[in-house]
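Subject: Predicted fold for Cystinosin, 217 residues

User T.R. writes:
Posting the sequence so we have a shared reference for the thread.
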Amino acid sequence: MSLSSLSLQSQYYQRHPMTVLHVRLNDVIFALYGVICVGIQIIQCIFYKRGDKQRVSTPCMIISSLLLLSAVIWLILVPTVDKLLWVDFLYWLSYIKLAITAIKYTPQLYTNYKLRSTEGWSIWQVILDFTGGSLSILQMFLLAANYDDWKSVLTDPSKLGLGLLSIFFNIFFFIQHYFLYRGAPMKIEEKELVKEGGGDNDKDKKNSYDNEAATHM
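User M.O. replies:
I've generated the structure tokens; pasting them so everyone works from the same file.
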């Protein structure tokens, strides 16, 4: 939005005079691509067959509701509080995105730790995510160097934060996949299968785990 809206650009420079705007076309494409992918996944979750006990967890519903409520509150405050600008609302949305990003990596990290294995889990998505985060940060530093404006790196906390978060969590995924659990076979205790709603025989148990693991990919 800040790339196409002159009003938002003006508000940005009002908040950060004489600084470089780090939002570029690739950031817009990244956001649109993310919306499309998430939209497809939501449609799949609604219409595809799922297990009887598969549902959105209570903590996820609570956190999502609180984040949505905070966005609505900001949406009400911006037009009513003189000191607030619409660019401040966009900043708040970016902070919500940072929180969601930090949360979304955790289930897969925990699942790998719980199983002591990364068998059946693709490392390529992590490699691509790590590459994207690294290049995003590199772009910020190149722009800052080109305009001799290093302070501007801190004026886009969402882009910087997303890049750093992706690198941080993906390093842990690399450690799990290539060092801690390298070549380790998948082991599932029967009590965990019962807890997770596994089948009565080995085949059913494996299928139950495969369906569960797919939801975390």
